[in-house]
Amino acid sequence: MRAFAVLAGLMLAEVALACGYCVEDKIAAAYDHAVVVQAAERQHKVAFLSVEGVHAKSQERTFARTVQSTPGVDAGTVRVSLEGGAVSFAFDPSRHSLSSIVDGIQKKVAAKGAEVSVLRVLRD
Questions:
Q1: Which residues of the chain are modeled with pLDDT < 50?
Q2: Distance, CA of 92 to CA of 68 (rounded, Å)
Q3: CATH second-level architecture of 19-122?
């Protein structure tokens, strides 16, 4: 009976694992608390984007550099998880709109067959 209970518990625990497809899982994959705290202190926002079309772990650095080089992205705040399908960065909304930043990123990554879209923006 005890073995059955353990087996049932393991099977239920597997269901509770992150699926990797929902918004919360994607955000968690690219979340960095230090970036969020620093952005809040500077009255900046943190954007989380979904990344489609790029999955190779070896491309994370290149993708991060591409995002980092986009005007409006705060230096040193880019976090990428291609496995999780997400990227995050901080930005100053008083200087650059999120839509202009996302458009800039999209133009750069479209040539490589990738696409980004906004998942969520943390304001405070």
A1: 6-7, 13-17, 20
A2: 14
A3: 2-Layer Sandwich (3.30)
Domain boundaries, the chain: 19-122
d(CA 106, CA 113): 10
Question: What is the pairing mode between strands 79-81 and 45-52?
Answer: unpaired
Global pTM? Answer: 0.81
Question: Hey, CA dihedral for 111, 113, 118, 122, is it positive or negative?
Answer: negative
Please report, in angstroms and rounded to a whole number, the separation of the first and last CA atoms in the chain.
Answer: 50
DSSP type of residue 93: T
53 token code pair? 């079309």
Query: Is residue 115 within 8 Å of 103, Cβ to Cβ?
Result: no
